[in-house]
């Protein structure tokens, strides 16, 4: 999505004709952007009743009904209904070629008699929608708005650098060889490879394994292994790859996942995250900003409320993922969905009276409620399928019940802020809000939206099973069974028996108007380098002068 | 759009009611709620996948237009809306209208 792809050969010929003329292209795109912006702006505000509508929706140019979903002509101000063919009628009557569905941004060509895809439209639409979301985000602390997203355009230096590069043809997908019951590791590595934030970090050379000089204490740099792994995957070689060093380093660092026996993928996941964190830049024990914590770390909040006096004790805990129970109160698991598991997770539960007594009034009847205080950019879920009845692993049972999970997920109802607001509204007697986000300051909704990108599945029994995974590449799903990679469909993925699911935030949010810390350190390093060079120059000059003096003395000695 | 408009009073009320719902934002709020519930029930993912695979299968034979896809899938899609979702949305609409119309 970095460059405008013009001259796309698969583009509809009628669109190509318009795009060929600079003025016509500009007019069409301006109109397109205007109608998308109108709808995007409207959608940010419909959720909150109160003020009057500023702009009423348009009426159909043929039948006059108010349009709940407008299809706008891209050549003139008309709009119409789709269902009864009114907008098509307008296009035929006027000779205009294109109309757009303001909700989805899809463009219809009357000559082709079908919707046509074009990267230019898709890009405009994404940028316009994002701009509206940014405008609609209200901060509590700062009066400034969100920093507007600007697509990257290379400057002259970068342009020159790009021209000198050779593109590597690669798929970005490679199978991983099973090194002896290591499917548990392979599935987690595939989920890391499919993880856009991890992938981008290593591919943009943020941890170069050839330059890395680990300190004496940490010879096993797992972060280097990630760099090597991603370099191997994004290379011309598409044969299956054996992550031998990764395995060796992991074994050395964590005894729980060492040895050739089958291990739990989730255990490996946590162990790998901790190792990469320990060997990455920016790693600290509190408020770490290493790549792992920047990607996976969130905050869980538990509110313990006293039933008698109402005092609430809040406590936050950092987390790297969320583990969800599958067993219901009745002991059987039916119709499990990710949403129902999350609801159960955030449902108030009564605490054992012996456990806790209120600091304020001393009573012992409390309810505890979990919620998510801070959402991480990548949200990982684990379904607790393996019940360990005792310390003896062999006595454990696997819960086979499938859990249905969606391709896209909105986490708003499970977050602390939204839950608190909803409780407040309930207590004050107001009707529960008809919208997902009860308050404008907590929105827009887009901030809570996540898309599925990887699923780890387990088949078989606890000690004798096999791990496979599904991962998404753009909009296509692939199944990874160790070294075998096959094209799959979304429904194959969603119908599988998931053990872990990985979701990534649709739009990243970041601290606005700040220079990234790595840029700051880079500039500081550059200044230091200049200092060092100046010192070296001075040293050289000194030595040169000393040599001259020596030569003079020698000459004098001869004479 | 209304499947039953036998009662002439209902027919006369439909257009102004619909207009008011759209202008209020009620229409969009209910549509958003419906979309959320359909997503949670897996309906959206199912039909997204079905239409995508249908289009993919037709790639070699000249492709398939959106209109054709809609014509083929819409009846099934409408039929497979979970009854719980249907009842919930009807209930929401009913509650809204009860506040606005005198019966």
UniProtKB/TrEMBL annotation, chain A:
GO terms for cellular component: cytosol; nucleus. One of its GO terms (biological process) is protein deubiquitination. GO terms for molecular function: cysteine-type deubiquitinase activity; zinc ion binding. InterPro entries: Papain-like_cys_pep_sf, Peptidase_C19, Peptidase_C19_UCH, USP, USP_CS, Znf_RING/FYVE/PHD, Znf_UBP. It catalyses: Thiol-dependent hydrolysis of ester, thioester, amide, peptide and isopeptide bonds formed by the C-terminal Gly of ubiquitin (a 76-residue protein attached to proteins as an intracellular targeting signal). It is an enzyme of class 3 (hydrolase). Residues 174-506 form the USP domain. PROSITE patterns: USP_1 (PS00972), USP_2 (PS00973), USP_3 (PS50235), ZF_UBP (PS50271). Residues 524-548 are annotated as: Disordered. Residues 10-135 form the UBP-type domain. Keywords: Hydrolase, Metal-binding, Protease, Thiol protease, Ubl conjugation pathway, Zinc, Zinc-finger. The keyword Zinc applies. Its EC number is 3.4.19.12. Pfam families: UCH, zf-UBP. Belongs to the peptidase C19 family. This is Ubiquitin carboxyl-terminal hydrolase. It comes from Trametes cubensis. The lineage of its organism: Eukaryota, Fungi, Dikarya, Basidiomycota, Agaricomycotina.
TrEMBL record, chain B:
InterPro entries: TF_ENY2, TF_EnY2_sf. It is found in: Nucleus, Nucleoplasm; Cytoplasm, P-body. It comes from the Eukaryota. GO terms for biological process: chromatin organization; mRNA export from nucleus; protein transport; transcription elongation by RNA polymerase II. Involved in mRNA export coupled transcription activation by association with both the TREX-2 and the SAGA complexes. At the promoters, SAGA is required for recruitment of the basal transcription machinery. It influences RNA polymerase II transcriptional activity through different activities such as TBP interaction and promoter selectivity, interaction with transcription activators, and chromatin modification through histone acetylation and deubiquitination. Component of the nuclear pore complex (NPC)-associated TREX-2 complex (transcription and export complex 2), composed of at least SUS1, SAC3, THP1, SEM1, and CDC31. TREX-2 contains 2 SUS1 chains. The TREX-2 complex interacts with the nucleoporin NUP1. Component of the 1.8 MDa SAGA transcription coactivator-HAT complex. SAGA is built of 5 distinct domains with specialized functions. Within the SAGA complex, SUS1, SGF11, SGF73 and UBP8 form an additional subcomplex of SAGA called the DUB module (deubiquitination module). Interacts directly with THP1, SAC3, SGF11, and with the RNA polymerase II. This is Transcription and mRNA export factor SUS1. The gene is SUS1.
